[in-house]
Amino acid sequence: MRGEATRIGDGINRVDGRAKVTGQAKYAAEFEAEGLLHGWVVSSGVAKGKIATLDTSAALAVEGVVHVLTHENRPRLAWFDKSYRDEDAPAGSPFRPLYDDAIVYSGQPVALVVATTLEIARHAASLVRVTYKTEEHETDLAARREKARKARPGKGGYEPPPKPRGNADEALAKAAVKVDAAYESPAEHHNPMEMHATTVVHEPDGALTIYDKTQGVTNTQTYVSNVFGLKPDQVRVISPFVGGAFGSGLRPQYQVFLAVMAAQVLKRSVRVTLTRQQMFTFGYRPATWQRVALGATAEGKLEAVVHEAIGETSRFEDYVEVVVNWSGLLYQCDNARYDYKVAELDVYTPLDMRAPGAVLGLYALESAMDELSYALHMDPLALRLANYTERDQNTDKPFSSKELRACYAQGAARFGWEKRLPTPRAMREGNKLVGWGMATGIWEAMQQKAAARAVLSIDGKLVVGSGTSDIGTGTYTAMTQIAASILGLPIADVTFKLGDTTLPPAPLQGGSWTVASVGTAVKAVCEAVREQVFKLAKKMKGSPLAQASLDEVIFAGGEVRLARDPAQAVSIAAAMRAGEAFTLEEETSTLPQLQEQAKYTRATHSAVFVEVKVDEDLGKVEVTRVVSAIAGGRIVSAKTARSQILGAVVWGIGMALEEETLMDHDLGRFMNHNLAEYHVPVNADVRDIEVIFVPEEDEVVNPLGAKGLGEIGIVGVAAAIANAVFHATGKRVRDLPITLDKLL
Amino acid sequence: MSASERTVATEGTTAAPATSHTITLTINGAKKQVEVAPWTTLLDLLRESLHLTGAKKGCDHGQCGACTVLVDGKRVNSCLTLAIVKDGAEVTTIEGLSAGDALHPLQQAFIDHDAFQCGYCTPGQICSAEGLIREKRAKTADDVRELMSGNLCRCGAYSNIVAAIEEVMGACTRERDGRGNGQGRHAVGGGRGEER
């Protein structure tokens, strides 16, 4: 069998691969329970107002319908907002399903039909009759832009825009060359392939076992406990496999609320799965308007950066994300000013979606940089290099590491950037216009507190666990690899467990921080086990390691070996037997080295190079080639790391060319709420994508030196594509997605 | 507000609706008689009644391909297929693609090429790829991309999916041409390949 490598950095096959290709991996809606009932959600048909009448009699008359939950018959719920807050909640009052008769957005759940079979529940749900007293709604960001206001901070990880430096507006007015443009991007929905689902098992003692689609089991556990007044130890949340999430599972969504409520009321096990249409009735990437103005000297030195953004939010919460801040730290510029506001609309609260904020801010900034390069008659890459910075001017701190120059150099070389003809429309193949564009990407390198437990058995098997998740990112594989490497065990002898509140707690899986956070805890706990093994190995009668210290030995092949003479070795099993230890167990919690980290700005960087071919007659854009060069610190698991970037580039293609959730503002309702009309990239949309990981050492970010890769791959891609489209066609499209109608 | 006035009154009485019919399916090689309502889709039958949850529901509208299974050797969206009209058919799901511990070559190739991330679309991708290979329509990587475009992968593993399928397709071609190394075996539950 392949995949016996145990070193950090090797490209091994996914350890959960076999479960996934054989259909054995179980997702939230696939767990069984005795007498399981099925819930089907009834969604509101209007955007704002009150429920006037809600008639469930026809639904209840259907044979097999057990109950219809509504705001009129719901059980008592927590009173205070804080009970409904979760780890990713922004400032405001979180939405409460079935709380009262108020309708605050279209698609809001208004009833849950619970029946003995899925089909009966679905049919009966269509019989629930709801009438509304409607009120005027506002859902159009463009119409509400003037009413935008300062956002309330309060969401974890959010940094308000930095204070301005210099005088950007004055410098802009005086600049020899300037560009000033607005960029717009629509609402986008995460649309993981697995729809949100929860199976709640009502245990005989009244405790709940909840199989939930979530990016954090602890988050769901806390939320359910607080909202329903349960003790956390009565609520076990399990989530071994998550069919994609991309941020959609960062907050407990209403299906878990409704499934728990039904289980509590009926004292039965209940499953609620949302429909694909209902996947458009909670968080999404907010529609955002941006203005970027850049001023430069005739030689291309940046003199002024102005970046303003307005994002949509709901009436009840201030969703915030870091959109504009990046513009003051990516390039050297002494005059910078930022503005970030939110506009309240009658919609659900937006939600973090892969590289939230950065993906938008960098789309605008890197489009503007491209526009500036043409205004300067300068190569786009040369312009970036002319304004390269080794210091984050927003905070006046150095970067803990920054190999962006190497990204530019290696990416450009692999792409063949030097062969680019500078003039738009200069390159073509038959009736296809060829365009080459590039952009820079940046994302934070973060670390959170995390805990892990490790148990080494005398048979040489190691089980490590932490309550993190694997949404497809490769957590299982990366953690197994870290653990195996530290104890020198074959991959097959190491099992990593996650997605269970009985395991030591881990942060939400988001922000690209899982390897940095959970990986650090796994490393620490395995090192603690290693120390225990070493002590036993030393103590053995006649041990060849009696005089050795820990840094003089290596762990390999199930043995502790003297580094300078590997023949001098003690097997782990023998050491444990001699020490009468059948198992060795450790549990550790790790924290970031905040003091040291605070001295630096910690970030991943990327350079993305894109080739598009645009059909001159039809305006159809094909992304034929992408080279993405990433500086992400140390790569822990090479194969899954590459897949993270490949997938994120595909997301960038979707963002640039396809994805847009269209609102009918008369109805205040998303129109294309399905996968036929909400376009995501399909196989035929994706051609050659090459990923380069630039070597990058970093001892500040965390003990592994890994910076995280979940988000960086998408940042910059939409701008690189938009820039390539301009290069191909001479048309600058400043509102995403770049659909063919905008090129004709 | 209190808990419901009307709760557990009618439960348990409708496990088998009056309109249900008995059909016979050969599922992963085993002949089964199952009771189905006329509106039950093949996907819901597999997932909810037979607990074969390898076939996934991603849209329930034939838009994503996650539910792809092989019916009489051809790939179909099981969410758009009423179970009752497939009386007598042979159905192969991801659970029945390989026999025993040995993986089907596509399953192994998907692992080797990391042709998935979250794994949710994967059973559908693999069943679809098996259907594609049986169709013998794809000659190039571009053909594979086009003919696999009914199977969405939101994680964006497409280039690895194409690489995995190409590897197995190449092995199949070699086997047909008498240059095989035995890696190209892709027999599925006795289904019939479509000649074109």
From TrEMBL, chain A:
Feature: compositional bias, Basic and acidic residues: 136-145
Record GO terms (molecular function): iron ion binding; oxidoreductase activity
Positions of the Aldehyde oxidase/xanthine dehydrogenase a/b hammerhead domain: 22-136
UniProt-listed SMART domains: Ald_Xan_dh_C
InterPro entries in the cross-refs: Ald_Oxase/Xan_DH_a/b, Ald_Oxase/Xan_DH_a/b_sf, Ald_Oxase/xanthine_DH-like, AldOxase/xan_DH_MoCoBD1, AldOxase/xan_DH_MoCoBD2, AldOxase/xan_DH_Mopterin-bd_sf
Domain of life: Bacteria
Region (Disordered): 136-168
UniProt protein name: Periplasmic aromatic aldehyde oxidoreductase, molybdenum binding subunit YagR
Automatic annotation (TrEMBL), chain B:
Protein keywords: 2Fe-2S, Iron, Iron-sulfur, Metal-binding, Oxidoreductase
Gly residues: compositionally biased ranges: 180-196
Gene Ontology molecular functions: 2 iron, 2 sulfur cluster binding; metal ion binding; oxidoreductase activity, acting on the aldehyde or oxo group of donors
Pfam families assigned to the protein according to its UniProt record, in alphabetical order: Fer2 (PF00111), Fer2_2 (PF01799)
Annotated ranges, domain 2Fe-2S ferredoxin-type: 21-97
InterPro entries reported for this sequence: 2Fe-2S-bd, 2Fe-2S-bd_dom_sf, 2Fe-2S_ferredoxin-like_sf, 2Fe-2S_ferredoxin-type, 2Fe2S_fd_BS, Aldehyde_Oxdr_Iron-Sulfur, Beta-grasp_dom_sf
Stretches for region Disordered: 175-196
Listed PANTHER family: OXIDOREDUCTASE WITH IRON-SULFUR SUBUNIT (PTHR45331:SF2), OXIDOREDUCTASE, IRON-SULPHUR BINDING SUBUNIT-RELATED-RELATED (PTHR45331)
Protein name according to UniProt: Periplasmic aromatic aldehyde oxidoreductase, iron-sulfur subunit YagT
